[in-house]
Amino acid sequence: MLILAVESSCDETAVAVVRDGREALSDSIASQTDVHSLYGGVVPELASRRHAECIHALAEKAVREAGISAGGIDAVACTAAPGLIGSLLVGLGFAKAAAFGLGVPLIPVHHIRGHVAACYITFPALEPPFAALVASGGHSSLLEVRGYTQYRTLGATRDDAAGECFDKAARAAGLGYPGGPVFDRLSQNGDPSRYHMPSAKLSGNPLDMSFSGLKTHVVNLISNAAQRGEQLDLQGLAASFSQAVCRELVSRLLAAMRTTGLSKCVLAGGVAANSWLRKYAAAALSEASAADGVDYELFAPPIPLCGDNASMIGAQGYYEFLAGHTAGLSHNARASCPADDELC
pLDDT grade, residue 176 (50/70/90)? Predict the structure, then answer.
């Protein structure tokens, strides 16, 4: 089955052709980083306009690079939630038109489920059940993936997302946007014990997370140093901050696996590209395997599939289609929606 997939939830426009949920025949992506870096973050109106300007050409490119004709497409999948509503509507509008014109089903896909599905392309043998940590600029969620379309939210951030903290800390330090890659590069030669970083103490669900206090601490640290005319050790700051974020994420992931009894876990989302997170998670699971007598397995997609892309939407779209989750042309986008909610 060939699916034309569209992703436009934030500031990346992407169109791909995916076969049977496991093979990406093409994935064309148009980045808007050059536009939004001028403002230190994503400007929703500008993002929507850029999506509208390039989505048609990207679709033609994706079909051409896949080596197929438009008539060979069996369905159109599209991110329908969550995300910037204007950006979502551009992609969904194009997907509706394509589905109507080709006479094929329209498959709405949840963006977070799409991030998880990036691992289906990378690891053909991977099957649910497993735990998933999805961390990006807009999301930090712990999920139990019971089946390809059966999700249960175990925990989530109560305030800022992990990727958002990287962006805001980097902006405060004058390092530009996006902050995640900049901090990752700087941290490679930094001392993670250089600066003390706080850890949030939460009541209620032990698998929930909070990053606003950590973000505020770093912003204040940078501001206070500037007021005193002191030079910060940016490499040490990046390393200390990266380790603190990863500590919060991985400790919750490991707790979730022990709570549910799952032995497999997936890292997904833009923050999954962070080298500290990948190394920290691998080391923690290896240590836990020895302590618990359980062979814990970690799956993380390659760097290009961590960020927003259309291949992941096509992969998840395939399983949504098999579950009968198709929609009519009146289907609307949603700016917010938990991963365990059915879009159809």
Answer: confident
pLDDT at site 344: 65
- The 10 Å CB-count burial string (b at 16+, else e) for 258-297 is eebebbbbbbbbbbbbbebbbebbeebbeebeeeeeeebe
What are the angstrom distances between the C-alpha of 174 and each of 167, 187, 220, 225?
11, 16, 14, 13
Q: Which residues pair with 115 in a beta bridge?
A: none
- Give the Cα separation of 116 and 129 in Å (integer): 12
Q: In the predicted model, is pLDDT for residue 257 greater than 80? A: yes
Which neighbouring-strand residues pair with 141? 134, 156
CA atoms of 299 and 319, how far apart (whole Å): 19
Residue 62 has pLDDT above 80, yes or no: yes
Q: What is the DSSP string of 180-195?
A: HHHHHHHHTTS-TTSS
The Cα 3–Cα 54 span in angstroms is: 20
d(CA 312, CA 160): 24
Neighbouring C-beta atoms of residue 202, cutoff 10 Å: 13
Partner residues linked to 135 by β-bridges: 140
User: Phi and psi at residue 30, in whole multiples of 5°?
Assistant: -115, 115
User: Alpha-carbon dihedral of residues 331, 44, 116, 303, nearest 10 degrees?
Assistant: 150
Tens of pLDDT, residue by residue over 308-322, are 999 999 999 999 999
Q: State both tokens at 146.
A: 């019971």
Tell whether pTM > 0.85.
yes
